[in-house]
Structures are given as structure tokens and as C-alpha cells.
Amino acid sequence: MAPTGTSMEAYNGHEVPKVASIKTLADSAALTFVPSEYTYTKNPNEQGDANDPEHSIPILIFPFSHQDLLINEQKDFLKVIVHPQFNSLYKPAGYSEVSLEFSKRTREVATEMLKGISESLGLEGHYIVKAMNWDRGLQILAANYYPACPQPDKAIGLPPHTDHGLVTLLIQNEMGGLEVKHKDQWVLVNVAPGAFVVTIGDQMQILTKDKYKSIWHRAVVNNKATRISIAVPRGPSLDTPALPIPELLEREGQAPKYIGMTYEKFIASPAALIKPFLDHLRVKHN
């Protein structure tokens, strides 16, 4: 990772921190707006062919569970696909290099986690990595900016949801706001400074026959300070079907609990608008 400096650059009469690392950006109290210079995804002086794949912008739709809450959703965000093909913003200077390094390092951490999960299930360490075509798996870098809200009881940072993929790594600044649902109660997650929070996604729940369950979580806002979080959801390759691990079914003598479908169909399914989505994929046994 690049060093975590706090030097400043001037943009339109304002000073903003130079991008030295993801953590520097998340921790910066000086970041209160997004300069217009940061909005280009490619060199604005270059002409591109709209039909050229090199100039296209990859788009994925990730529907939320409670559409009625979106009207009160308080946040700005950036969501970029960084694997299997790396994409990046053109500005600010240095962002692309930092984003690429951060994406690689978090992918390494997630890979080790999958090895541990495989072994905990009595499987060979690389089982899930191989079965989910991890080397071609979808990885997203999502940065969320939640400004202080004068009426936090009437707004939500991010509505309740589960993540679609296998695992998600999340880092945030000192202003917490992540809540998880436990026994029908929302519980605030107290995170050590600089630590990652790891959540399990829907694909992992399907794969492990509910042994590892995706977790309902949300982001709440406050009236004191800005919260910044950076999430890295990681899933299988888009053409990989999520199915319960055959060895687990055979070992326990049970039938599959879920209908299998590719990850691409999973995240694009209209049923994803209806939560909990996994309930719609459960096999109904007589």
C-alpha cells in the first residue's frame, strides 16, 4: 500500500487531501465535497468510440430490499468493478494505483478466508476457491459517503440487506454506523480502528447449506459527523452456478436446500427485490 500521508492539494479554492491510501481518504476530516475534477472516468481530452468496449462503463444493478426507504437514503457513493477486469477513475492522480493495490490486497485476504472456511467444513483448503472460479470472480470496490444528517431518525444510510456474494470486507472511519440484525434486534457493530469487518454473503450460505449464513445489515446516519466506508464485495465468476457442496450433501445424507443458478442470474433476478431473496430459492420438500 502507498504511505498514509495527509498532504493537501488545492481544487477550486478548496483544499482536499492527496490520495495516498484508501485509509487516508476514509479518515480525512477535510473531505466534505467531491471536486468536479474527480468526475472524469477517463482522460477528458481523448475521443472515444461509443461502440468500442474499451470506452464502455461496466454496469451491474444491485437492487435494495425496501424500495420505499430509498427516498430517505442519505449517502453518496462510488461503485466500480475491479475484478476480473480492473476499472478505475481517471482522477484524482494516484487513485488508480492505490485502488489497484488495495483491490489486490483485499482479494488476498478474502482468498485466505475462503481457504479457512473450506477447511472448517472438512474440505481441501482450495475447494471453494476452485469451485467458485475465484480467479475469475466478481469483485467490486464500493465507497460510501454518509454526511451528518440533522434528522437521523427520519433517514437511513443504507437500507437493510444481505450481500449477494461470498464474502465482503469493509473498512470505515472512526464514525461508526454499521448495524447487524441479531435476534430481531439491530445491534451496532463496534469496530477497532483500522480493522476490517467481514460479512458472509448469500452465495456462501447456499454453498455451505446454511452452515455459514449471510447476515442482515444496514448503515445508519448521525447528526454529529460524516461517516465514510469502503466495502469490497467478492463473489464467484458470473457464469458459475451456486449449488450446495456435493460432499456436504453426501456426508450428511441430505437433499439440496436451494435451487441453483449462475451468479449473474442471481444478482439480476427480479426476485432480488423481494427479501429475503434466499427464501425464494429454497427447495420445498414434501
TrEMBL record:
It comes from the Eukaryota. It holds the Pfam family 2OG-FeII_Oxy. GO terms for molecular function: L-ascorbic acid binding; metal ion binding; oxidoreductase activity. The keyword Ligase does not apply. Keywords: Iron, Metal-binding, Oxidoreductase, Vitamin C. Residues 136-236 form the Fe2OG dioxygenase domain. Belongs to the iron/ascorbate-dependent oxidoreductase family. This is Flavonol synthase/flavanone 3-hydroxylase-like. It comes from Prunus avium. The gene is LOC110769598.
